[in-house]
Amino acid sequence: MTDTATARPPLHDxxxxxxxxHIPFCTNKCxxxxxxxxxxxxxxxxxxxxxxxxxMERTVAELPPETIRKVFVGGGTPTVLTxxxxxxxxxxxxxHFPIAPDAEFTMEANPGTTDPDKLDAMREGxxxxxxxxxxxxxxxxxxxxxRIHEAxxxxxxxxxxxxxxxxxxxxxxxxxxxxxxxxxxxxxVSRALELDLPHYSLYSLKVEENTLFHRLYERGxxxxxxxxxxxxxxxxxRERLGGAGYGHYEISNFARPGYESRHNSTYWHNEPYYxxxxxxxxxxxxERHLNVKGVQPYIDAANRGxxxxxxxxxxxxxxxxxxxxxxxxxxxxxxQADFARQFAGVRLADAFGTxxxxxxxxxxxxxxxxxxxxxxxxxxxxxxxxxxGAFLA
Length: 393
Known about the structure:
Elements: E1 18-23, E2 25-26, E3 38-39, H1 45-62, E4 68-75, H2 83-96, E5 99-109, H3 116-124, E6 129-135, H4 139-144, H5 151-163, E7 168-175, H6 182-194, E8 199-204, H7 212-218, H8 227-243, E9 247-250, E10 253-255, H9 262-268, E11 274-276, E12 281-284, E13 287-291, H10 295-304, E14 308-313, H11 316-327, E15 334-335, H12 336-342, H13 348-361, E16 365-367, E17 373-376, H14 384-389
Parallel strand pairs: 1-4, 1-11, 2-3, 4-5, 5-6, 6-7, 7-8
Antiparallel strand pairs: 8-10, 9-10, 12-13, 13-14, 15-17, 16-17
Helix pairs in contact: 1-2, 1-10, 2-3, 6-8
């Protein structure tokens, strides 16, 4: 086996086929959110869009793109842009990046921020998939986590999106919220399934630093569900979504066949991607970068050059560890053929034989039937973080 301490991973010699763009503006800051986002009121949004286009220009000059097959616009809440701003932004994306006619082009949205004019601007600009942050259909819980929409806003937003011609739609739901009961979650799942969407993302609350919830947690003032209740919530989600015909294709994601998130598969397969915007991460040619985070600092940095906060080379060993940690999030698991393709023929057993053997013996991993590879066992699914951590040096 080659020296993995300093060598570059051969995988990342190819040009990214995926593009992530960050719009850091929101209508308000939710109590659990640690994303790089800022309340839009009073922010220099047009100047930010100018800076973003300058980063696009410099990015494609430094690393000319081939065909882009997956685009994801996240935030923040990209749909706080006005229809003219939205049209201008999407025109710039299409001007600088050669996007395939059949590309998946996703935009995150908050319920209540997508009026018909904005939806028309999104469709005209190439967006063909929308992911709405619903979180819960319980209005009391929505208020308790700092959301400003109500349950009916989700229903109306989905209706408007379908009327505008969008069929590839997803919503996020959260569980493990303060004082949330299993019955409240069950009710939200019922409301979500009534929308008859092709994709659902279901996340447990994580208390992150630099959030209001973290400050409350530190003071003992955040009444979270007990661990066994949260485990029961996750099992309930799996049962309900599976029973409704949705494939549990990734730990937190369920989809009808053919509607799995293609952009997020870039991350789960540890593949390269362009990352643009304030605080955006990118991964290309064996390097990861992080952009300057603040809005005005980002604008100033983009006026001078590429707005990098830091750039770090990734060793082969680090890339292999990443491959395992993100790949095992997929219910299909990791395949020997994919590992060998990314790492010049190296076998999984040569790189991680000891770790794999231990996890197999513990019943947390199992061999993939019909092909050479490994996946989380049923016992391993709720203990995923323990499994992923086993592959860190």
